[in-house]
Design brief:
Radius of gyration: 30 Å
Structural class: alpha/beta
CATH superfamily of the largest domain: Metallo-dependent phosphatases
Distance between the termini: 37 Å
Number of strands: 20
Number of helices: 9
Number of domains: 3
Order of helices and strands: EHEHEHEEEEEHEEEEEEEHEHEEEEHHH
Largest sheet: 6 strands, mixed
Shape: elongated
CATH topology of the largest domain: Purple Acid Phosphatase, chain A, domain 2
Strand order of the largest sheet: 4-3-2-1-13-14
CATH architecture of the largest domain: 4-Layer Sandwich
CATH class of the largest domain: Alpha Beta
């Protein structure tokens, strides 16, 4: 069997203005172009793009021009590129054409997809004239490439039908392109498949080329996912991903992994204290930034954890983020709050928590939520009454005495006062901060 080489790329997400910055979309295009240039330099025989080529199905003209610029690299070198659609590439509500179809019609790559019928799946050979098909066979007989787009919830049910559509018997070395994720790779993934779901393809496919999850992984020596060329969220910064250069000789393959070209990204943490002020927070964050090398214009994410009392707005996180970005050489300094709010001001005296003070403030907060129209003097009587009731219960006072304390509490509430009809005093309090959740794929 003759030898050959190919480049396996996935999840490039062209056009993603990460953090609202156009420069990040430029970075993402630069990373894809660098991977394609590497493939050309290595003299690969073909290139795979395994889904989520674009970040959105309705990408803008500038991003389409980025795509053309990147794909012109293998086109001018005469290296064929095979692509499949990922979940980000196509519309969710229709079967209308996408920008992938435009690139396909323009000859920048061959967009592979089967035909699905009521009876099963048809894997038609690629027709260059109409530019439709699912299977490309190397004219020299060295390899076969089969492309299947993202199938969402239908994936597991359709895999046996896809396997049945593959020819039996003697065949060239076969690559199957798919856009799906396997269990155990990304936490809390709702669409992951067990790797055994791909077992029907065994014996008919030698290399399953995946996209979808932004993490490099492999399974059982025949299933591979390179994870994307640039990170799409701060959660991916420390996750290994890039692209694969695959060499096939004598029917055996070797997979060499290369990190994608990525803008440096530093992720640091700072724990706020309950009495944090804007000035103290700014000084602390400036200290963290001073320890970094920012000469390569990185993105810096400063994650805030801890508990604030009631002054989150006074921290002016957005203003601080802008000031810190402008004052440094970083492309962006972003502050990501992951704070807990607490209406209890924990008082500390010589390192010890004043539990009584905490209890009183908790009770006051609950009373204010349940009896918003109670005056301060009545609130004081109610707080003292609850405290007396608690102390009596802890001492083991006679039930009759405890009942008397309850009656006194009832008497302390003015007859015209009405409790809130909402549980816990009405609507949930506004969170002190927001946790940024960034899509895995």
């Amino acid at each position: 069997m003759s030898s050959f080489r190919f480049l396996h790329v996935s999840d490039t997400h062209l056009g993603y203005n990460q953090y609202g910055l156009r420069q990040r979309a430029v970075d993402i295009a630069r990373s894809l172009k660098a991977a394609l240039e590497h493939g050309v330099e290595e003299g690969v025989d073909f290139i795979l793009l395994c889904g989520d080529f674009f970040d959105r199905h309705n990408t803008n003209p500038d991003d389409f021009l980025h795509a053309q610029d990147c794909l012109r690299v293998p086109l001018e070198a005469g290296i064929p590129v095979y692509a499949i659609a990922g979940n980000h590439d196509t519309t969710f509500w229709s079967r209308n054409s996408s920008w992938l179809d435009v690139l396909n019609e323009s000859g920048y790559f061959d967009l592979l997809a089967p035909t699905f019928t009521e009876d099963g799946v048809v894997l038609e050979p690629w027709d260059e004239d109409v530019r439709v098909g699912a299977v490309v066979d190397d004219p020299a007989g060295r390899f076969r490439v089969v492309g299947v787009p993202h199938l969402a919830s239908r994936t597991e049910a359709l895999i046996p039908k896809i396997a049945a559509a593959l020819p039996d018997g003697e065949r060239p070395w076969t690559v199957m392109m798919m856009h799906l994720g396997l269990t155990g790779q990304v936490p809390n993934s709702h669409d992951a498949l067990e790797k055994t779901a791909l077992d029907p393809l065994r014996g008919k496919v030698d290399y399953v080329a995946l996209g979808h999850y932004h993490k490099r992984y492999e399974a059982d020596g025949w299933i591979y996912n390179p994870g994307g060329t640039e990170h799409r969220s701060s959660a991916e910064v420390h996750v290994e991903h890039g692209y694969h250069l695959v060499t096939v000789e004598g029917g055996r393959h070797r997979v060499d992994f290369f990190e994608g070209l990525r803008r440096p990204h530093h992720v640091l943490g700072y724990r706020v204290v309950p009495d944090e002020t804007r000035e103290s927070l700014k000084a602390a964050l400036e200290g963290l930034l001073a320890d970094l090398d920012l000469s390569d214009a990185p993105v810096v994410t400063l994650t805030l954890t801890g508990t604030v009392v009631d002054a989150y707005a006074s921290l002016d996180v957005h203003g601080l983020q802008r000031e810190l970005s402008e004052a440094t050489d970083a492309l962006l300094v972003r502050i990501q709050p992951e704070l807990s709010s607490n209406d209890v001001h924990v008082r500390v005296d010589d390192g010890a928590v004043d539990r009584d003070a905490v209890e009183v403030e908790v009770l006051r907060g609950r009373l204010a939520a349940a009896w918003g129209d109670v005056d301060a003097a009545t609130a004081d009587r109610l707080v003292r009454g609850v405290e007396d009731l608690k102390e009596g219960a802890l001492r083991g006072d006679d039930p009759e005495a405890l009942y008397g304390l309850l009656e006194a509490l009832d008497d302390a509430v003015p007859a015209e006062s009405t409790p809130s009809t909402e549980p816990d005093g009405g609507a949930e309090p506004e969170a002190a901060g927001t946790v940024e959740v960034e899509a895995r794929a």
